[in-house]
Amino acid sequence: MMKKITAIITVLAACASLTACNKAPGNVQSFDDIKLVRTGFANRRVFEDLAALEEHVDLMVVGKFIDDSEQNERYRYSEFFGKDILYFVTSKNTIEVEKVLIGNANIGDTLQIVQEYGIVDGDLVTFSDLTPMQKGDEWLFFLTKDSDSDVYYCAGDSDGRYPVPNAENEPMPLSDCPDLGVYDEQNFMWNIYNEILEKYDI
To answer: Partner of 198 at 20 to 30 A CA spacing, among 52, 86, 88, 184?
Structure first.
């Protein structure tokens, strides 16, 4: 099932002031002074239950982010604004696998994870409902491998990452429910998470 996710404002309006500049590192010391810009349109698969997720993914693992994120900003020239503007940004981080529940992986393996967000000109620009990847954070991941490169994505965006009970993750002041790993609790799949807790020892 595909669901069109329409964010608060369009990419063009939100990113018009984000001109080509020095590439941001993708990691910050604190998110307290960062402005959240949720923008863009994305089509993604929505998973209604745990069985659908399990059937779709290449890997289901518990892992911990072990690096600072690196990001890739994409700009293109806008005739309307008369300058290059940001139209997309992604961040990449590495997890170390701590437990394997589905798929061909081993404890201690490292996997590259990509999310659709980045820090540009002091703003956290995100095309994703997932909060940023922070070094030391531990999550349960449902992962699909990119067909063209050796990286993974969380299946269905926010449908594909869940809290590990008792994990002590870094603070995330931009979220009203930071322990859940999303910006808004309404985007968290509680029914799937409850199924996970009943079925798996994480």
So the answer is: 184
| Reported pTM | 0.85
Q: Any idea which residue has 């529940």 for tokens? A: 101
Encode pLDDT of 38-72 as tens digits.
Answer: 976 567 889 999 999 999 999 999 999 999 999 99
What residue type is assigned to position 69 of the chain?
S
CB 130 within 8 A of CB 181: yes
Spatial separation of the C-alpha atoms in residues 64 and 95, rounded to whole Å: 5
Q: Give the three-state DSSP class for 123.
A: strand
Residue 65 CA to residue 93 CA, distance in Å, equals 7
